[in-house]
Amino acid sequence: MTTIGIIGAGNIGSQVARAGIAAGYDIVISNSRGPETLAALVQELGPKARAATAAGAADAGDFVVVTVPLKAVDQVPVEPLAGKIVIDTNNYYFERDGHIAILDEGRETTSGLLQKHLPTSRVAKGFNHIGAADITTDGKPSGSQDRRALATASDYADAAALVEKLYDEFGFDTVNIGPLADSWRVERDQPAYVVKQTKPELEANLAKAVRVTA
Question: Would you put residue 98 in left (φ > 0), alpha (ψ -120 to 50) or beta?
Fold first, then answer.
């Protein structure tokens, strides 16, 4: 059975864990405070989940979801993620992360920063433009007329395909934006950000995106 490693046990991380368990995955989840602080969550998730350090979750995962504040990206372990697909849920909130010039000036994307930090991993954008609670409540069977769609982006076809597979298992359609350099189209304050939309609506909103530049 495939194991999802999750680095970050906040709103998104814990919801991805719940959806992953429901879809039949094993989960190894971590946070910045230590495995012992996740006892209640692991008990809720049941026998297919366990807590670990960030390095332990990175090592255990067949693929790994990184869902930590952007300002903590440089603390994500590099070596245990070598050769693995990493799904990045991050968004840039300067109120929390402090101003980052290359993002303020539109010269980089949040997922691009993680890819640079993890040069031997294959990073894909995922789960960044959906409210955490919706991950476990908005999914619908494939083919549903009003099925919600989510976007991904990656420089690696297999990484984008994995996110598409995971979205489908969780009940969502997928729009592939293309390379990480274009993932700004689904970042904060863009038309596609945190709105419920079908695949055609998401495609239209991505096309409406305008990049902020200095």
Answer: left
What averages of pLDDT result for each successive group of 10 residues across the chain (214 residues)?
94 98 98 96 98 98 97 96 98 94 94 98 98 97 96 98 98 98 96 98 98 77
Q: What is the Cα–Cα distance from 137 to 116, expressed in whole angstroms? A: 33
Q: Which two tokens stand for residue 17?
A: 């864990």
166: exposed, middle or buried (Cβ count in 10 Å: 0-12, 13-18, 19+): buried
Strands, E assignment, 23-113: 26-30, 49-51, 63-66, 85-88
At 212 the pLDDT is 79
Q: Minimal CA–CA distance to 177: which of 125, 103, 118, 102? A: 125
Separation of alpha carbons 157 and 211, rounded Å: 24
CA 104 to chain centre: 21
pLDDT of residue 163: 98
pLDDT of residue 214: 61
Residue 128 CB contacts under 8 Å (≥ 6 apart), including other chains:
88, 89, 90, 91, 110, 186, 187
State the Cα–Cα distance between residues 5 and 54, nearest whole angstrom: 9
Q: Residue 87 forms beta bridges with which residues?
A: 65, 124
Beta strand ranges found along the chain (DSSP E): 3-7, 26-30, 49-51, 63-66, 85-88, 122-125, 149-152, 173-176
